[in-house]
Amino acid sequence: MTETTATETTAPETTAPVAHTSPAAGGAASAGYGLSAVGLLRSEWIKLRSVRSTAWSYALLVLVSLALAAVMSSTLDLQGADASMIPAADQATFIAQTATFGVFFGQLIVAVLGALTISGEYSTGMIRSTLTAVPRRLPALAAKAAVLFGTTFLVGLAANLGSYLVASLILSRQGLGVSIADPAVFLPVLGGALYLALIAVFALGVGTIVRSGAGGIAVVLGIVLLLPMVLQVIAAPWAAAVLPYLVSNAGINMFGLMSFSQVPIEWWVNLLVVLGWLAVSLVGAAAVLKRRDA
Amino acid sequence: MIQAQSLTKRHGDKTAVDAIDFTVQPGTVTGLLGPNGAGKSTIMRMIVGLDRPTAGSVTVNGKHYREHRAPLCEVGVLLDAKAVHTGRSARNHLLALAATHGIPAARVDEVIELTGLGSVARKRVGGFSLGMGQRLGIAAALLGDPSVLILDEPVNGLDPEGVQWVRQLMRRLAAEGRTVLLSSHMMSEMALTADHLIMLGRGKVIANAPVSEIIGMAGTHRVRVRTPQAAQLAALLAQPDVTVTTDEPDLLKVSGISAGDIGEHAAGAGIVLHELTGVSASLEEAYLALTQDEVEYRASGSAQLQEAGR
């Protein structure tokens, strides 16, 4: 063999039995194997953890969050003011903003990861294996979305909690400090993680519709990153009116990091806006996945 | 068992598969044969629901593929080597597929051993040779211990040892009572492996019969004659229904007359013969004869080539 692989394959023992149950037709099927929700979730979890891009993306998410929290909290200048003079509510807001600042960048990282989760299957041909194993197709997409959502939420939560700890540690030297139990802190920390998980699944839907890795990433980043910038530049009133309802603006407004509207928008309205974008993406993905030849 | 009824696939105006009917029986190796664009891969993809038929239907063991509770345990399919994420190890690829059906890791290790991938199972698939990729595809197909196997060009990229291994595997799977459907461009491979052939041309079934019968359809038996007096013998044999061709100075290929008659003619004229062998048509010739009118892209391009070759 002239293959690049280092190891030489030897011809396997051809007299070994192929069947591990009975050689009769449908032997394994009668052994109780079959598609199940738990099985699909496990399969998608194996897939997610067994490609390098996942570990890289999540590690980057955590590192960027911690680094930003460290930079933001260590550059805080009280200009000689006594920390005890600052109202607790303002302290909580500042710490919450510091703990969730990484979400700004994190949303781009998980958006790329979400798009790659499915477009990687299309570009490599893996999708044919996936859809052959799950010929009804939609359960495979649902399992993929669920696993991506859960994993991203947990990693996002870890990143935000870590950022809170880093910020608290650095700010305590200036006498600032708010407990994680304060709703003004833990709600944004949870909300930031929730938004990251939702944007990852949104990107998964877009990736399913677009199918190509580069295309999926371009479309998702266009919606998350470029659209808000472009609309901000446009002076027309309609642009200002639309701005708060862009997925990334609503998502970031949701945990109070930044507002894009003259009038405050309730967190649940922002959540509904994000869920609306998500629904459009997933419904489109489901329709396309079901109909198109793979 | 695989059953297709009026199975049709159109892409726009182009008909890839044209209302075909066929049944693939268990216990045999059935070959799907045809020129490029004849619809072989499209048929295979429709069987496992990757492509949706425009009309008609195809069932596996009595049901549409997607309606089976454990599809991987009904049908094992190798569509092409490129159905694997290149960034994942072979073992993780198989584990992910197995997990969907609750198939245990022990079975994954079993098919890894069976396909000879043991030493590379934990390496990323991106570095695999074509042959390794084929072995992994076959491992995936065997994962659910299915009663039906569908393999598109399974020996593609395999070394001679691998080719022989696949051939024996196909035979054994069929002997175990399974339904085996494979496609190949390699006619000699089909002749060695398949019991039954479904020949396709322009999306239609042009022959559906045992291999021996298909070879018989090509009809013409020829006789190889080796003689130092080739020109003299050729002149002697010149009759309206006899054709004589020659590739080498002392070798004639004769059809339309029996070996015995050639021997008589030669003896009568005192011509020395070094060889006189009856040759039955090869599967390749049968295939070419049957698909002569069916080759899709026999357009002006190849006609010009033939002209140029003269």
Automatic annotation (TrEMBL), chain A:
Q: Which UniProt keywords apply?
A: Membrane, Transmembrane, Transmembrane helix
What are the coiled-coil residue ranges?
Answer: none
Pfam families the UniProt entry points to: ABC2_membrane_4
Where is the stretch described as Disordered?
1-23
Which domain of life does this protein belong to? Bacteria
Q: Where are the transmembrane segments?
A: 55-74, 94-120, 141-165, 185-210, 217-247, 267-289
PANTHER family in alphabetical order = INTEGRAL MEMBRANE PROTEIN-RELATED (PTHR37305), MEMBRANE PROTEIN (PTHR37305:SF1)
Write the protein's name.
Answer: ABC transporter permease
Q: Which organism is it from?
A: Cryobacterium sinapicolor
UniProtKB/TrEMBL annotation, chain B:
- The ABC transporter domain covers 2-227
Q: Does the keyword Thylakoid apply?
A: no
Task: Could you list this entry's UniProt keywords, alphabetically sorted.
Answer: ATP-binding, Nucleotide-binding, Transport
One GO MF term: ATP binding
What Gene3D superfamilies does the annotation carry?
Answer: P-loop containing nucleotide triphosphate hydrolases
Q: Which InterPro entries match?
A: AAA+_ATPase (IPR003593), ABC_transporter-like_ATP-bd (IPR003439), P-loop_NTPase (IPR027417)
Q: Which PROSITE patterns match?
A: ABC_TRANSPORTER_2 (PS50893)
Q: Does the keyword Transcription apply?
A: no
Similarity-based family: Belongs to the ABC transporter superfamily.
Name it: ATP-binding cassette domain-containing protein
Native source species? Cryobacterium sinapicolor
Lineage of producing organism: Bacteria, Bacillati, Actinomycetota, Actinomycetes, Micrococcales
